Amino acid sequence: MRRRNFLVAAGAAFVAGCNRIAETDAGKAVLDAAESWHKGAHRLLSDRKALAPEYPRSSISPFFRGNGSTDPQNGDYPRHVEEGFANWRLEVGGLVANPLSLSLENIRRLPQRTQITRHDCVEGWSAIGEWTGPQLSVLLDAAKLREEARFLVFRCADNLNGGDYYESVDLVDAYHPQTIIAHSLNGEPLPIRNGAPLRMRIERQLGYKHAKYLTAIEAVASLDDIGEGQGGYWEDRAGYQWYAGI
Amino acid sequence: MKRHAVTTRLWHWLNLLCVVVLFMSGLTISNAHRRLYWGDWGFDASQAWLMVPRFPDWMAIPGYYSLAVARDWHILMAWPFALGLLFMWIAMLANRHFRRDIATSRREWRPSAIWRDIVEHLKLNFDHEGGKYNFLQKLAYGLVLGVFLPMMVFTGISISPGMEPTFGWLVDLLGGRQSARSLHFIFAFALAAFFVVHVVLVILAGPIGQIRDMITGGREA
Q1: Nearest CA of chain A to the CA of B215: how many Å?
Q2: CATH says A54-238 is which class?
Q3: Is residue B154 part of a domain?
Q4: FRET pair for B5, CA 20 to 30 Å: which of A107, A116, B16, B108?
Q5: Which residue of A lies nearest to B159 if distances are taken between CA atoms?
């Protein structure tokens, strides 16, 4: 028993030491820097347009798990569910020359991409599904992104534990060929738990980047004034990494 | 010549720090989703091959449940861990530590020789004529340096979605992302088992002298 107490004390002391370091400015700076080294290494090693793996139909998971919001009850969302999303609009605005407001019908009429990809949650699980929708690049070209734009912010209808969900990516991921605005999963309209009627697919990053219940896409020069400035709901709330390719 | 080269000593202590932080933050990451799967995908109990126990907070960085902070540490320490291992491999090939002390000869793989080594170990007789390490030590250090530690890096790379466009072949080789995640876990615990045996044997062999030599390099041999 004494040996176990020693282990517990040693473990706790080591953990406390790590936390002490993480609280210092230098500690914070190094922890943040490590994240950007990974992003730099990934982008150095991969072509910017290199694709995440796509799978045959036979690999599709029998059920696609939902996480985070799975049935939003806030604001107009329940009304949209009742209307079958007939009046849902997707706004494309911010630093664009030609803002857009699109209905689901408009979105389905754009050139479509269908991809069977694997979704990796930050928690560790994976599921494979077939997603269909227009590439984000098609919308950005139509909206004429202005030169100052550096990030795309995805606004969502769901309010999770008192905060509005949002996410953001830089232009590399925004223009990636597999970055699509999905309206279908496995050939059917998106289920509510998976983000009906529209969700992002950011295939080279973890699940929390794939904003669900998408209402608007906003081009910005900086993320500092969006939310609490960390670039996303989980980034603001819990300190998750903005670059989720790791 | 010193008992331990300066490169070996530097790497040994750097690697200890990295492995401890990576393991302890890894326990928090494991707590975030405690099931392991084989193949490309998996998310619920019916697909799992193992339900991992929940690890208590005192052994997990940051000491309370925060997947984000645990990932911060894991992401940081992955760098010195992987680069340090690369450095150690270059150093021990260049200074012949690997050829001289760790690589085994065919003679040492004879069952009678292995059996004798096991018996001597059980008698706690750690004197070995000839080379610096006996067969079991060579096997243990060879496995750790050549398989367990590199596999932590390779399976770690394979779990990262941002690496997959370039390293998809590696993910396929490991049997898919969830297999890579399972292997990441298995090799982490293989390292933990090595760590326990290693510390016990150092204690039995005289911890003060062993630790001093790994710091100062030890007597000129």
Answers
A1: 21
A2: alpha beta
A3: yes
A4: B108
A5: A246
User: Residues of B with CB below 8 A from A241's CB?
Assistant: 68, 71-72, 75
d(CA A245, nearest CA chain B) in Å: 4
Instruction: Give per-residue pLDDT as tens, B146-156.
Output: 999 999 999 99
**Average pLDDT value for chain B:** 93
Number of compact structural domains in chain B: 1
- Between CA B122 and CA B22 the distance in angstroms is 32
CB contact under 8 A, B72 and A22: yes
Determine the pLDDT at residue B117.
86
Helix (H), strand (E), coil (C) string for A7-68: HHHHHHHHHHHHHHHHHCHHHHHHHHHHHHHHHHHHHHHCCCCCCCCCCCHHHCCCCCCCCC
Sequence length of chain A is 246
Edge-first strand order for the sheet with A184-185 is: A113-120, A126-133, A184-185, A188-189
- State phi, psi for A103 to the nearest 5 degrees: -90, 170
Whole-number pLDDT of residue A134: 98
| pLDDT for res A15 | 94
Q: Which B-chain residues 66-125 have CB contacts (< 8 A) with chain A?
A: 66-69, 71-73, 75-76, 78-79
Q: Quick check: helix, strand or coil at residue B15?
A: helix
The helix or strand, by DSSP H or E, that contains position B57, with its residue range, turns out to be none
For the domain that residue B138 is a member of, what is the CATH number?
1.20.950.20
A217 burial via Cβ count (<10 Å: 0-12, 13-18, 19+) = buried
Instruction: Tell me the mean pLDDT in the region A174-194.
Output: 98
Is B221 domain-assigned? no
- Phi and psi at residue A102, in whole multiples of 5°? -115, 140
Binding-face residues of A in 160-189 toward B, CB within 8 A: none
Residue B221: the pLDDT is 55
Is the ipTM of this structure higher than 0.90?
A: yes
DSSP per-residue codes, A191-227: PGGGTTT-EEE-TTS-GGGS--SEEEEEEES-STTST
Q: What is the pTM of this model?
A: 0.94
In the predicted structure, residue A142 carries a pLDDT above the cut 60 = yes
Which residue stretches of chain B have pLDDT < 70? 127-131, 220-221
List the beta bridge partners of residue A156: A214
